[in-house]
Design brief:
about 40% helix, single chain, 6 strands, six-stranded mixed beta sheet, Pyruvate-ferredoxin Oxidoreductase, domain 3, alpha/beta, 6 helices
Length: about 180
């Protein structure tokens, strides 16, 4: 089993944090092999950002793939730039608050969630990436949900008041992902 995922969006949307959280939590809590490969645009906040995460039960040959099983797009430019890299039959995850363009491919499964609006609704605008991570895990079962919850606890262990709000945000996304399986 090998899953190739790219997460793409603007700097400041938590793209790298989402990928790093997925990679680190998976590495620490499972016996799976993981790679994380970030790519930053010219400016971090507001510029483009993307990262690759590969999760496999075998050795990983390359940290980057342009034949993706899964693609998470947090903004319109990322959709247009990276949609051609998604394999037929792959999963396209869309932040539908921002990405409103019509999806022209009918050979991929589209899983959409208004994660920016959801984060604003819970008064936690920085949680949009954690919500989307929940959508991803819920729809793919790439890793068990408790792996990510442990990762959230570890990431925020020095800021304990942020643990439960982020777990709640993750669980919101998880339910959306499960419903769109």
């Amino acid at each position: 089993m090998e899953r190739n995922l790219m997460i793409a969006g603007f700097g400041g949307q938590g793209v790298m944090t989402m990928g790093k959280l997925l990679a680190e939590a998976t590495c620490e809590a499972t016996d799976l092999n993981v790679s994380f490969f970030p790519s930053y645009g010219a400016a971090m906040r507001g510029g483009t950002a993307n990262c690759f995460v590969v999760i496999s039960d075998e050795e990983i040959g390359a940290p980057v793939s342009y034949a993706l099983e899964d693609l998470v797009v947090m903004n319109g430019p990322s959709l247009h730039k990276f949609l051609p890299t998604l394999k037929a039959g792959g999963n396209l995850f869309i932040n539908s608050t921002i990405v409103t363009d019509e999806i022209t491919r009918d050979d991929v499964k589209v899983i959409s969630a208004p994660v920016t609006q959801m984060a604003l609704d819970i008064n936690n605008p920085r949680a949009l990436n954690v919500i989307m991570l929940g959508v991803y895990v819920g729809a793919t079962d790439a890793v068990p949900a408790d792996v990510i919850i442990k990762g959230i606890e570890h990431k925020f262990e020095k800021k304990p008041k942020l643990i439960q709000p982020n777990i709640d945000a993750f669980n919101m996304g998880l339910e959306i992902g499960k419903a769109q399986k």
